[in-house]
């Protein structure tokens, strides 16, 4: 018997009708790159705890996705929605790949683009957009994740120089970065500094034994009296609003990216259920299976509609940064639920790297935590609704 051709979950919702041809073409180009360059290798990279980040950065630079939503300095200047859909396709490959692009473009490059001097922009942004130089973003510390205002890293003046001392933790790209954007406490408040690789006193040991984001470079940054010239400071950022604005850029990409991982899980599971025979019938023909698939398709579609709405507002310049919390909370919470349900439908096959589902599920445990935990985003939404801050 010939089975009817199933409708992909997002085609059924009709989200393609909400973006223009140019954006769809760009999304298709990123999808082709992921299909060709990432999918055949990512399970092995994940198992080995390795990512060929430098090679991939150059290829991603050629593709035009590094800092793609920024203008000038070799950046593509695309819409926010196009950037979001690129993140969707990248994370459908692996969260580690999207993290590489997010940290490069939305954290390190964005910090320089928005807060840097013209000399700093000229020195770093064209090379970073091309993937010739890699950046990282040093804000989080071991004891200060959700509360970065408590950071212990300090920068003190010594003559005409700055001297930085402290430790940053969970830094994507840290041990391979050519430049680190490091945030430190000074007598004038929190400021950002550009710390080049090889600076005396800077070390970046890689964090190993991870069970999530294994195909990603994660490091500490240890700053032991790192001496920098006065012009290493980002002149346009003063206070915690600087790094937090960068985090908002990265969170926006996660709104779309997490849904990419969920979509890959759901499409994989639908295909598996249609081919898997159970008591002489396809697994997909059972009501219990269809009820689960229908619920997952519904949540995925709703998540994409919210993401595209937020993208449209960002492109129109009307997006309130607190609205990003709606998207980040919803996308990651639903994505991890979808990944877990898909794993269950696949049964024993779902725990192997022969299928991408367990890899996405494990990765999403990290995505659930970084760029603001679910609880932090719930409290941001709660503050909007009630007018009361309940963070303490």
From TrEMBL:
Residue ranges constituting the Acyl-CoA dehydrogenase/oxidase C-terminal domain according to the UniProt record: 239-385
Superkingdom assignment: Bacteria
Domain Acyl-CoA dehydrogenase/oxidase N-terminal as annotated: residue spans: 21-132
Domain Acyl-CoA oxidase/dehydrogenase middle: 136-226
Family statement drawn from the similarity comment of this UniProt entry: Belongs to the acyl-CoA dehydrogenase family.
Classification via InterPro entries: Acyl-CoA_Oxase/DH_mid-dom (IPR006091), Acyl-CoA_Oxase/DH_mid-dom_sf (IPR046373), AcylCo_DH-like_C (IPR036250), AcylCo_DH/oxidase_C (IPR009075), AcylCoA_DH/ox_N (IPR013786), AcylCoA_DH/ox_N_sf (IPR037069), AcylCoA_DH/oxidase_NM_dom_sf (IPR009100), Glutaryl-CoA_DH_mitochondrial (IPR052033)
Protein name per the record: Acyl-CoA dehydrogenase
Organism: Micromonospora rosaria
UniProt keyword list: FAD, Flavoprotein, Oxidoreductase, Transit peptide
Cofactor(s) of this protein: FAD
MF annotations from Gene Ontology: fatty-acyl-CoA binding; flavin adenine dinucleotide binding; glutaryl-CoA dehydrogenase activity
BP terms from Gene Ontology: fatty acid beta-oxidation using acyl-CoA dehydrogenase; fatty-acyl-CoA biosynthetic process
């Amino acid at each position: 018997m010939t089975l009817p051709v199933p409708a992909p979950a997002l085609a059924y919702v009709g989200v393609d009708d909400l973006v223009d041809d140019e954006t769809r073409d760009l999304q298709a180009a990123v999808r082709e790159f992921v299909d060709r360059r990432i999918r055949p290798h990512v399970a092995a990279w994940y198992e080995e705890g390795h990512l060929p980040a430098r090679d991939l950065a150059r290829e991603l630079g050629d593709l035009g996705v590094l800092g793609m939503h920024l203008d000038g300095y070799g950046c593509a200047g695309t819409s926010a929605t196009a950037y979001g859909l690129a993140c969707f396709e990248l994370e459908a490959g692996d969260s580690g790949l999207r993290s590489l692009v997010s940290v490069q473009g939305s954290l390190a490059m964005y910090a320089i683009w928005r807060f840097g001097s013209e000399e700093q922009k000229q020195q770093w942004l064209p090379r970073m957009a091309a993937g010739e130089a890699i950046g990282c973003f040093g804000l989080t510390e071991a004891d200060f994740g959700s509360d970065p205002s408590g950071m212990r890293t300090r920068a003190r003046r010594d003559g005409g120089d700055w001297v930085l001392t402290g430790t940053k933790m969970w830094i994507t790209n840290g041990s391979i970065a050519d430049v680190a954007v490091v945030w430190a406490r000074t007598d004038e408040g929190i400021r950002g500094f550009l710390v080049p690789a090889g600076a005396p006193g800077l070390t970046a040991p890689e964090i190993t034994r991870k069970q999530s984001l294994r195909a990603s470079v994660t490091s500490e940054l240890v700053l032991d009296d790192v001496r920098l010239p006065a012009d290493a400071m980002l002149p346009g950022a003063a206070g915690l609003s600087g790094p937090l604005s960068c985090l908002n850029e990265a969170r926006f990409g996660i709104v779309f990216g997490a849904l990419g991982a969920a979509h890959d899980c759901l499409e994989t599971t639908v295909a598996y259920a249609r081919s898997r025979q159970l008591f002489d019938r396809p697994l997909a023909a059972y009501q219990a299976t269809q009820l689960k698939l229908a619920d997952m398709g519904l949540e995925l579609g709703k998540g994409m509609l919210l993401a595209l709405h937020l993208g449209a507002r960002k492109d129109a310049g009307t997006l309130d940064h607190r609205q990003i919390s709606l998207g980040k909370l919803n996308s990651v919470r639903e994505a991890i639920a979808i990944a877990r349900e898909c794993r269950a439908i696949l049964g024993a096959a779902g725990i192997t790297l022969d299928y991408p589902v367990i890899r996405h599920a494990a990765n999403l445990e990290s995505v659930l935590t970084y760029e603001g935990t679910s609880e932090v985003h719930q409290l941001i939404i709660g503050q909007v609704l009630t007018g009361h801050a309940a963070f303490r």
